[in-house]
Amino acid sequence: MAIYKVDISNKDAKRDLLDLFIDRNIVLESPCGGKGICGKCKIKLISGDVNPITEKEIAFLREDEIKEGYRLACLTFGRGNVEVEIEEKEAKHKILSDGYMPDIEFNPIITKVLKKSEDLVVDNLDSYEDLLCTINKTNDLNLIGKMNKIVRNDEITAVYSGDDLIDIEDGNTVDKSFGVAIDIGTTTVVASLIDLKEGNEVGSDTAINPQKEYGLDVLTRIDFINRRENGLEILKNTIVDCLNKLIGNLCEEHKVERKNIYEICIGANTTMMHILLGISTETIGRSPYKPLFVNEKYINAKDMGINIAEGGKVYCLPGVSSYIGADIVAGVMVSNLKYTDKNVLFIDIGTNGEIVLAKKGKLASCSCAAGPAFEGMNISCGMRAAEGAIEEINISPEKITLKTIGNKKPVGICGSGILELISELWRNKLIGKTGRIKTAEDVLKSTESEVLASCIEDVDKKRRVVISREHNIYITQEDIRQVQLAKGAIASGFYSLLETLELSMDDLDEVIISGQFGKHLKISSLVGVGIIPKDLENKVTYIGNSSKTGALMCLTSKNVRKEIQQVATDIDYFELSTKDGYERLFTKCLNF
C-alpha cells in the first residue's frame, strides 16, 4: 500500500480525486474512465474533509470496506488536505509475445554500407558537402554536420533507409544494426528486438498498456480524451514512455546501444495509432466513426519522443477503418489471406472482436464490440491474466478443480478461465440455454449432485455460482450476461460476413484465431459457449500475436512493406449495425 497526500484548493473542490490524481501522475486503475460504473478505483481514506459516501459506492464496496474507510476515487470530492492509501499491484502478468511466422525473404529496408577513405576522393570537389552527395544526397543539416567524420576517419559506415541516407558513423559498425517490432494492444504492449544484419529475433519484452488506468477499452479512452483538455497528451506520453522503457529493457538485457536501433515498426488498432501519433480520436468515437487517417506512416522517431538512433525512423502499419486497424492488417499478411485459394475465417478475439473473411482472396471485414469480459474485466471476480488468476476449471458432479497462473492462491478469474467456466456450467447443466442460472433445486434434480447444487446461492436476490468458498470466488448472472453479449457479438459478426460473401459454414476450410487473448483459449471452450460451431472444431488454427509478427515482417522485408498498403486497401469493411436483420441475428447468437 502507498500513502498519498493531496492539497485540494477551493477551485479544485469540484474535481473528483481520480481526476486530481491523474494531474499528479498518481496511478490508479480506472477501467471505465472515471464514470463510476466499474468500482475499481478504490482508495482508503486516512484523513481529510470529503463528501459523504454515495449510493453508487455502497453498491460496489463490501460492508467491511466501508467501515474501514474505503471509497471510489471517481466519486469522492475533497477540500484542503486529504490523505489516502492506494493498493499497489505488482502481480506478474501472462502476456503472449510470440506468434506464427511465415517464411519471407530477408531484405530489410535498413542497410549499412562501409565506406573506406580511398573510396572518398575530395581533390576535385568544391566542398565536403559535395563529398556527402557521393554517398547520398541529403538536406539533413545533422548529417551535413557529421561530414567531419568523413574527413578524419579512414573508414565510416553509412546507414540507409531504402535509398535515403539517415546517419554516418565512425569506423566499421556494419555488424551493429537493429530494429524493434512492436504491437500496441489496448491491453498489452509487446516489443521484439531484431538483428537487422542477420535477421534474428534477439529478445522480447512485454508490458501492460499503462493507458488502462485511464480507460479499459478504446471508447473509454476516447471519452477520457474528450473530457480532459490535455487528455490526448496524457495518453500519448503514457504510451511513448512505455515504449521507451521496453526498448531500454531490451538494450540493457542484450547489450545493445539505443544509437544502433534505426527503425521501429508498429502494429496497433486505429485508436492506439492515433493516440501514439498525438492525433485526435474524436471522429473515431462519433458518427460516422471515421478516423483521420488509416494509411501507413513513416516518421522520425525523435519527433515522436522515441529514443533510438538520431536518424531513426518509426513505420506505422496501415489500417482499414476506425475498428479494423493495422493490427488486423498485420494478421491478414501473416495469414496470407490475400493470396489464399481457400475460404478462411480470421478472428482476433479481445476487447474488440475483429473478423476478416477471405473467399479465395476476396477480403471482407467487420468489427464487433465484444467488451472487456473476455479479458476478465467487468466481471465480479474477474481479473487480468496475472499470477493467482484461475485459468482452467473442471467441473464434475463430485468436485470443482481449479488451476491458477503460477500455481498461486486463487484471487480471481482471467478471461480464458471465465470462458471455460461458462462452458463447464453449460455442460454440467447449471445454466440453461438462455444463460439463466438454475435454482439449487433444479440442479439437484437434473444432476443428482449435492456438490453442484450447493454451488448455487442467492445473495440480495441475485443468483450466483460459487466456484471457491474458501477464496470467495464466484460468477453472477450479470457476469454470464456480459460473456453472452461478447460471444453473441463475435458469432453474429462472422455469420454476417458469411452471408455477405455468400458462403456457408460448410464452405469454410480454416478458422484462424489470432491475438494475445485468443492463443490462451481452448477450442473446447470456444465450442462450448458457441463462439465456434462444433462442425468447425477440427479446422481451427492458432497463430498467436500476429500484430507483432506482421510488424516484424515489415521490419525485415522490403517486399512485405511494399505490399501491405495495397492489402489494407483491398480489405472491404462492413458496418454490422446497418445490416438488415442484424439485431435478430445478434439476439439469436446470445443463446448457448
Walk me through this protein's architecture:
InterPro entries: 2Fe-2S_ferredoxin-like_sf, 2Fe-2S_ferredoxin-type, ATPase_NBD, Beta-grasp_dom_sf, Corrinoid_activation_enz, Raco-like_middle, Raco-like_middle_sf, RACo_C. It holds the Pfam family RACo_C_ter. This protein is of the alpha+beta class and 592 residues long. Among the domains are: 2-86, Ubiquitin-like (UB roll) (Roll); 110-170, no CATH class; 178-316, Nucleotidyltransferase, domain 5. The protein contains 19 helices and 25 strands. The strands form six sheets. It has a six-stranded mixed sheet, sandwiched between helices. A six-stranded mixed sheet has the order 24-23-14-15-16-25, sandwiched between helices. The protein has a four-stranded antiparallel sheet with strand order 1-4-2-3. 45% of the residues are buried. Mean pLDDT is 88; it is low at 93-97 and 122-130.
Task: Give the topology, please.
Blueprint: E1 2-8, H1 17-23, E2 42-50, H2 55-60, H3 63-68, E3 70-72, E4 78-86, E5 110-116, H4 128-135, H5 141-145, H6 147-152, E6 155-161, E7 164-170, E8 178-184, E9 188-195, E10 201-208, H7 218-227, H8 231-254, E11 261-268, H9 270-276, E12 297-300, H10 301-304, E13 313-316, H11 326-335, E14 343-348, E15 353-359, E16 362-368, E17 389-395, E18 400-404, E19 412-413, H12 415-427, H13 440-447, H14 450-453, E20 456-459, E21 462-468, E22 473-476, H15 477-500, E23 510-514, H16 523-529, E24 540-544, H17 546-556, H18 558-570, E25 571-573, H19 582-589
Parallel strand pairs: 8-11, 11-13, 14-23, 16-25, 17-19, 23-24
Antiparallel strand pairs: 1-4, 2-3, 2-4, 5-6, 6-7, 8-9, 9-10, 12-13, 14-15, 15-16, 17-18, 20-21, 21-22
Helix pairs in contact: 11-17, 11-18, 12-16, 15-19, 17-18
